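REVIEWER CHECKLIST
Item 1: Sequence provided? yes
Item 2: Single chain? yes
Item 3: Sequence as submitted:
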Amino acid sequence: FEQCDPKKCSGMILKSRGLISTLSKSAKFNGIVLTPTGKKIVSKEDAAIIEQSGIAVIDCSWAFFDQVRVKSVKANERLLPLCKAANPVNYGKDIKLNCAEAFAGALWLAGFKEAAEKVLDNFKYGPAFLAVNEFHFSEYDKCETSDEMFKAQERVKNALEQEREENRNREIDYGPGSSDEEEGEDSDDSEAERAYYAEINRKIAAKE
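Item 4: Structure as written out by the authors:
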């Protein structure tokens, strides 16, 4: 829908490398369609549909999804569960996935892990996507159905919230003479974030 630079659009990059094709808005599509309005979360129970008919991502900002009219969006709409982005624009943010990350996430959760890795191999941040979602996917991978995915998503949310709360409550010794109250409010979160991304980089390096 021409909402981003085609030279940087992850979907267009995948198309240029022959991994996906584009559909017109009026095209008929019987596969899984990822949208923000689906009632079910993509899961292994969708594997047969994906294997037979494929999976589609609507290349637009979810903020403008209501303005998009796509004939393909029908019975097989699916949500993605809570995931973190690894792309340079939204690194570490919840839900802010680009097209490639959405494709890879859905394929991984439906059981097509090799296909997901093939998508991610086209981007420098590909390994980081799996690294930042290691905990998320370890919980989702236990699920077979959409209902189980919703329950797993709640477990993930609760665990992450508990971790954030612990980080906020952690006491940090700034040493003698430090009385910068302006930095005090965000110091716990900043320290936790630095440790978090350091651990991600360590995991990526270990896989190389």
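Item 5: Key structural point noted by reviewer: The radius of gyration is 19 Å.
Item 6: Recommendation: ____
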